[in-house]
């Protein structure tokens, strides 16, 4: 956001766009690499939290949702920085409120408690809000 703001303030629209593109590209590549590594090791991570087979299995089961959430959240963070750097803080705030408080949290509660998907349902709600925020920004 700082680089975008500096370049826009200096009137360098091409440099501001390049800065935004670089930030978003780095976020996409880095989060994809981390998510891929997490996905490949999904059957191991559960052991860090428990030695109960059911917990380990469930951790492996929800890891793909977590991996997608990591990528979406990283892109969303980069896009939010670009929006802030552009001086459009209110736009970012409104999108955040709509994506999470109006869509993501209610969906998570619906999937978790009404459709009985438990923690997986909460993660689906978070992912829904984050994806909506990323696509909107």
From TrEMBL:
Transmembrane parts of this sequence: 20-41, 62-82, 94-115
Keywords on record: Membrane, Transmembrane, Transmembrane helix
A GO cellular component annotation in the UniProt record: membrane
Pfam families, A to Z: MatE
GO molecular function, one term: antiporter activity
Source domain of life: Eukaryota
Record family assignment: Belongs to the multi antimicrobial extrusion (MATE) (TC 2.A.66.1) family.
Protein name: MATE efflux family protein DTX1
């Amino acid at each position: 956001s700082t680089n975008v703001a500096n370049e826009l303030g200096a009137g360098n629209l091409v440099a501001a766009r390049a800065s935004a593109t670089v930030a978003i590209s780095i976020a996409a590549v880095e989060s994809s690499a981390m998510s891929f590594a997490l996905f490949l090791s999904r059957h191991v991570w559960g052991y860090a939290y428990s030695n109960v087979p059911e917990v380990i299995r469930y951790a492996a089961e929800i890891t793909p949702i977590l991996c997608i959430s990591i990528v979406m959240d990283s892109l969303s963070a980069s896009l939010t920085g670009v929006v802030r750097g552009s001086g459009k803080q209110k736009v970012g705030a409104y999108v955040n409120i709509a994506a999470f408080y109006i869509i993501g949290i209610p969906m998570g509660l619906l999937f978790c408690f009404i459709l009985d998907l438990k923690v997986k349902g909460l993660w689906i709600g978070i992912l829904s809000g984050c994806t909506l925020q990323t696509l909107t920004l």
